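Re: your question from the hallway

Yes, I did run it. Sequences:
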Amino acid sequence: MARDNFSNDRRATITDVAREAGTGKTSISRYLNGETGVLSTELRERIEEAIAKLDYRPNQMARGLKRGRNRLVGMLVADLTNPYSVEVLQGVEAACHAYGYMPLICHAANEVDLERRYLQLLTTYRVEGVIVNALGVKEDTLESLTRGGVPVVLVDRAVEGLVTDMVGLDNTEAVRMAIRHLVSQGFDELLFVVQPYAQVSSRRMREAAFRDTIGALGVSRVSGATIVLDLDNDETLVEIDARIDAAQRQNRRIALFAANAPVALRVALHLKDRHGVDWQRRVALMSIDDSEWAELAGMTTVRQPTYSIGERAVEFLHERIEGAVVAARECLLPGELVVRASTSAMASSPTNHGGT
Amino acid sequence: MARDNFSNDRRATITDVAREAGTGKTSISRYLNGETGVLSTELRERIEEAIAKLDYRPNQMARGLKRGRNRLVGMLVADLTNPYSVEVLQGVEAACHAYGYMPLICHAANEVDLERRYLQLLTTYRVEGVIVNALGVKEDTLESLTRGGVPVVLVDRAVEGLVTDMVGLDNTEAVRMAIRHLVSQGFDELLFVVQPYAQVSSRRMREAAFRDTIGALGVSRVSGATIVLDLDNDETLVEIDARIDAAQRQNRRIALFAANAPVALRVALHLKDRHGVDWQRRVALMSIDDSEWAELAGMTTVRQPTYSIGERAVEFLHERIEGAVVAARECLLPGELVVRASTSAMASSPTNHGGT
DNA sequence: CTGTTAGCGCATTCAG
DNA sequence: CTGAATGCGCTAACAG
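Structure:
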């Protein structure tokens, strides 16, 4: 029972501090809001003492109620299990601190219902803006926010019918870069593996970029195909196997290209099951998203500028919160190719053609 | 410009709804608080209409200000990059929803300063309780909360000098289980690899359990040693190498036992660097924490009951928020051994002794 | 430079 | 069953 500050449970309020300091609430408020220089040093000292003595902390709720702004911004994350999201989050957090916002993180755990619920909750807490990286929120749910004057910025994926700021990877260029790498390493058959992409714009873009790039290369040089893989039902994995076998029978060098980390992991697990620990010598795998195990597996990837994406999202949000009225912007940041052993010219070739 | 609800930016307040429904604010408030049966069906309908028309959402801030409780609970996470934390988080979130709380997630990103800052911020937002999984918060920072009447429950690690509810893995039993497994598989030299553990109670417990268990086994049968690995400065990795080499020269079967996932990953990366993709055939590795790549690497682990830990933490918190005044509790949940190839009797034995 | 006053949006007495 | 009044903790005019 050391310093038992009469602080009997209830936290001190501004009134308590005023009384303790022998002054009015206004002065306390002024002090809190850094209206320094407007207070006599003598008063300021008394205030500081009182605050310390009572361990006073201004109540943000009351503050927000009065001012109309509570410095809260919502961050809706589809899946924290995905390292991509966590990394973006870190950028968001850092930027939030820099601007003085408190990020309210909502994790929808891939549940569309939860997404909607969280969005409502955020409304209810009167967040000043929302960063959304969601799976299935519809245009109308979000529209209700924007109509209410709450800016929204989308991360990674666009939402059909909604015009707002959006920031994410330059998917087209990322895919192009990856394919160029694969081709330069001598692969002549590419299999793009992606989750059902109709609903998710980033997946759609990646798939389109894949087809376009392959097309531009000319079928004669490189052939490509897209495989849709549903993580909850991986029967399409057998199709992948078939493709691999066929390619290798024809002495073609095939490489799998996973559209993101979850897909890459699923595919890797399967390949390991089928080919044993040495699977990497049998088939080349690369992916978008540079997850922690990529290094362990020696897998080539395109690393997303996740941190910057998060930062940028907050910047956009901040501008709009501050009242900027500009047309919806789109910020596409470049990815970075991380070359590892999985796609080296030597690897996974049934017969070694080429190489000095 | 479809349905442009006069809702000119500003969100509707309870007063607006009252006016729209042609009644007083009290009735609206009653409706919102589910004081059903106290309102004539006719009035209720009018209210529902008005709410829908204005797209009204009660302001939680104002609500909390008045009631003195805002249903916010803080969750301080040391490192979201660690899958352990994310999993615990999921349990926390689920339980929060069940009890009607809104979890305010704070990610300290392993920065002690941030931890303290976030804790203050949470105070400021008048959270009703806090779940803490932190790296370096001191007893006094937390004490300031509890003294303010805000319950705190610790996850995974205890904080010196602070008596509160705590929930985590039953470290002692988990380590014992792991060692039993290793020994049953014929390993006779165990190397426990752990991050600096003086400050972190769970690491300390694991290390102690390791030594105790080995001791109880009798030095004649199995020998063990602890290696401290600092992730930011892995020069101790050479010591690990030396131990491995020595053991193998003496024809002893050595196994590495990582105290958690980050350590396991660092060690695995190193072993792969040193021994190539086949490293698993050279040295056995197991760990506490069943991360996503464990399956890919075929590594034996002890899976923590992360989800339950999160749930349990919220339960404790809820009870205290509801006013329970009981002595500090400690809830140690059992881990689950997940056996994979890395510790099979065959693996990583320099000379195969034993096995049918 | 400093104190007084009036709400922010809502829940709660307390009277109809 | 319903509504008018009061105040939660704080800021923002307004006066001294």
